[in-house]
Specification:
The protein has helices spanning about 10-25, 45-55, 70-80, 90-105, 135-145, 190, and strands at about 60-65, 85-90, 110-115, 125-130, 155, 170, 175-180. The longest helix has 20 residues, at about 10-25. About 35% of the residues are buried. The chain has 2 domains: about 1-30; about 45-190, Vaccinia Virus protein VP39 (Rossmann fold). The chain is built from 6 helices and 7 strands; from the N terminus they run ααβαβαββαβββα. The protein has a 7-stranded mixed β-sheet, covered by helices on one side. By secondary structure, the protein is of the alpha/beta class.
């Protein structure tokens, strides 16, 4: 018996547990740059309302920029039959998303990309969902208008896009959900 009342085997097990926890913590990858916003999960009723407001169908490809745990693209696949892509800069969120998609049985309909939403290729999206801050929505707006095809729906929870007037606003639990549709691009001919 050791002085503190623990046996050598108990001390060994305790040290092994400490090393295991420490190595698991150290093994977690960190984002290549700090995220622009902390993750705050959207309530399930908001997720459903966002997808319904965008009129998601099985023909859609839903991109969630800053996807967190993947709940929006997973719901799009599971409840609406759509395909989905989640993008997040935090590798832990991507791992969570992949695990959640597998548990929901939709891994074949969704994929998750660890990356910067401002650099990501979003051209395949027919619906884009956002739960960011107002400044991030405004920073992202030129990319959305430049890269998305006319008719693509953009849905944002809580935050608008300043002078870009939404097509619709719906309230869930007293908080707004905004819908915009990417307009037709003006050509040189149509401007004359």
């Amino acid at each position: 018996m050791m002085r503190n009342g623990r046996t050598g085997a108990q001390v060994f097990r305790l040290l092994a547990c400490v090393l295991l926890v420490t190595s698991a913590t150290c093994a977690q990858r960190t984002p290549r740059r700090p995220p622009d916003i902390w993750w705050e999960p959207s309530p399930p009723e908001v997720v459903t309302a966002m997808l319904k407001l965008a009129k998601v169908t099985e023909k859609d490809v839903v991109y969630d920029l800053g996807c967190g745990d993947g709940r929006i693209v997973i719901a799009a696949a599971k409840e609406f039959g759509a395909r989905g892509v989640g993008i997040d800069i935090d590798p832990q969120r991507i791992e969570d998303s992949i695990r959640n998609a597998k548990a929901a049985g939709v891994s074949d309909r969704v994929r998750f990309i660890e990356g910067d939403l401002f650099e990501a290729d979003i051209r395949d999206a027919t619906v884009v969902t956002l739960f960011l801050w107002p400044s991030l929505n405004l920073k992202l707006r030129p990319k959305l208008l430049r890269e998305l095809q006319p008719g693509t729906r953009v849905v944002s929870y809580i935050h608008d896009m300043a002078d870009w007037k939404p097509e619709a606003i719906q309230y869930v639990n007293g908080r707004p959900i905004y819908l915009w549709v990417i307009p037709e691009r003006q050509t040189q001919e149509s401007r004359r």
